[in-house]
Amino acid sequence: MWVFGYGSLIWKVDFPYQDKLVGCITGYSRRFWQGSTDHRGVPGKGCVWGVAYRLPAGKEEEVKAYLDFREKGGYRTTTVNFYPKDPATEPFKVLLYIGTCDNPNYLGPAPLEDIAEQIFNAAGPSGRNTEYLFELANSIRNLVPEDADEHLFSLEKLVKERLEGKQSLNCL
Q1: What is the pairing mode between strands 19-29 and 92-99?
Q2: Would you please indicate which residues are annotated as catalytic (active-site) residues?
Q3: With 80 as the cut, is the pLDDT of residue 169 above it?
């Protein structure tokens, strides 16, 4: 069993896996439209880059149960095609955790400035939402430097501007 990570599963890998590959799924867009008391993609157009993890043989159900708990709060699973970055590797099926618009934590589309403000102010048991955003942006830059995830990188810029503004206010 392979699981696709497009958010914190890229940079916060706290589960065992046998192998991992960088690649993408199509027909989806990475968006910060999912609210969560713990942690935040939605169907759309385009390609979402991330990492597919092959779960250890004989431990698939145990690891999946852990991931089901970790990705609670409005996420459901579906199976999608994964396209490895290395074109020599054939596409294959992966399990995807996806926040859908019919769950109680779904926030929906909003102006980037509003989403940035929410990220700037949000914190929960898993930490600050700014950490999630910055770790994800850095991971995507490192894994797929040619990807220009406009939504992600625009939010990163807006949140960093808010942080710089707060720091300059603290210096007065």
Answers
A1: unpaired
A2: 71
A3: no
